[in-house]
Amino acid sequence: MEKILTLGIETSCDETAAAVLRDGREILSNVISTQIPLHQKFGGVVPELASRKHIVNIMPVVDEAIRTAGVELSQINQIAVTYGPGLVGALLVGVAAAKTLAFALKVPLVAVNHLEGHIFVNFLSAPELEPPFLSLVVSGGHTALIKMNTYNEFELLGQTRDDAAGEAFDKIARVMNLPYPGGPEIDRLAKTGNPDAIDFPHPKVADFDFSFSGLKSSVLNYLNSTSMRGETVNNADVAASFQRAVVDSLIDKTIDAAENFGLSKIVLAGGVAANSALESSLRAACDKRGLKFFYPTKILCTDNAAMIACRGYYQSLAEDFAPLTLNAVPNLNFKGAAQ
């Protein structure tokens, strides 16, 4: 049987990425052009600058992905692209490139939900992984618990009611004057701090939803009040205590959901999956309860096109293709509809 080559394209935020996969799970190339140096001086992603940089980078990145894969562009069987959620200008660059290539090559186009892509990246790190399982998706814009029944059947069990965990990390890092991106800086600083030094509240909401706005406010109040009293702030202790509160909340909900739905496998996904405390603590919690834990390699935690190609491959098996009139949907939610 002929092998299927999928070209994946990802431009939802500030990473211009392209990848080629063989039969959905074998990575032939995974090229990522980051814009972190461009946005670092602004303390966060500037949407207009991100869009312009994607325009410059998109075709060279695609060319490099094809060349690194050792294939010809004419051999590509289908093209998968992120169409949401994300920054509208950034998404439009990737969608336009994918539609143009699909039209020129006369191959099918697959529209991929970025959040689903994050879950599917675990299939690339763990060839033995199969549904059903529970996935904790934690990124800068999203925090959700998703039950994956089959490759194309999902249930959203809970999500954040306000700030995403990654967003909370970045906001606290910014207030503490840590470099962008803030999440990795909090993780680095927390390694030298005492997680029990400050009693920040552990967010508690009903069911399997999350909330981090109250915790964020508590940290901000602590920093302000300590400064007003003229006391020295121990940034390492603040980072460690804040991170402990976030991680504990994520793990408590995840373990409860797995036990409630009788799931024996837990998958961690999203940019915040790269947080060392979250990975080690969730692994320990799974080991304690006899649950199997799956975790992507570091390079696959952040935004990349291999995850988009993988998700697109399984959509193509279900003949879930998109028309060439496809448009970006920046506020796309997990179920595939705009919020």
Explain this structure to me?
The protein is an alpha/beta fold and 339 residues long. It folds into two domains: 5-120 and 301-317, Nucleotidyltransferase, domain 5; 130-296, Nucleotidyltransferase, domain 5. 44% of the residues lie in helices and 19% in strands. It contains eleven helices and ten strands. It has helices spanning 36-40, 47-69, 88-105, 114-125, 165-175, 182-190, 213-228, 235-260, 276-289, 298-301, 306-317; strands at 5-10, 15-22, 26-34, 78-84, 109-113, 133-138, 143-150, 153-159, 265-269, 292-294. The strands form two sheets. A five-stranded mixed beta sheet has the order 3-2-1-4-5, with helices on both faces. Strand 4 (78-84), helix 3 and strand 5 (109-113) form a beta-alpha-beta unit. Helix 2 runs parallel beside helix 3 (88-105), helix 5 (165-175) packs parallel to helix 7 and helix 6 packs across helix 8. It starts with a strand and ends in a 22-residue tail after the last helix. The model has no long low-confidence stretch (mean pLDDT 93).
Keywords summarizing the entry:
Nucleotidyltransferase, domain 5, single chain, 339 residues, 10 strands, five-stranded mixed sheet, alpha/beta
Summarize, please.
The chain is an alpha/beta fold. It has 11 helices and 10 strands.
Name the beta content range: 15-25%
How many runs of DSSP E, i.e. beta strands? 10
Number of helices: 11
Low-confidence stretches: none
Task: Kindly report the average pLDDT value.
Answer: 93
N/C terminus separation:
41 Å
Q: How would you write the strand order of the largest sheet?
A: 3-2-1-4-5
Q: Give a quick account of the main beta sheet: strands, pairing sense, barrel closure.
A: 5 strands, mixed
CATH topology of the largest domain: Nucleotidyltransferase, domain 5
**Shape, per Cα inertia axes:** globular
- Tell me, what is the CATH class of the largest domain? Alpha Beta
Return Rg in Å.
20 Å
Our count of domains comes out at: 2
CATH architecture of the largest domain: 2-Layer Sandwich
State the share of residues found in helices, binned by percent.
Answer: 40-55%
Assembly state (oligomeric): single chain
Q: From N to C, what is the helix and strand string?
A: EEEHHEHEHEEEHHHHEHEHH
Structural class: alpha/beta
- Find the CATH superfamily of the largest domain: ATPase, nucleotide binding domain
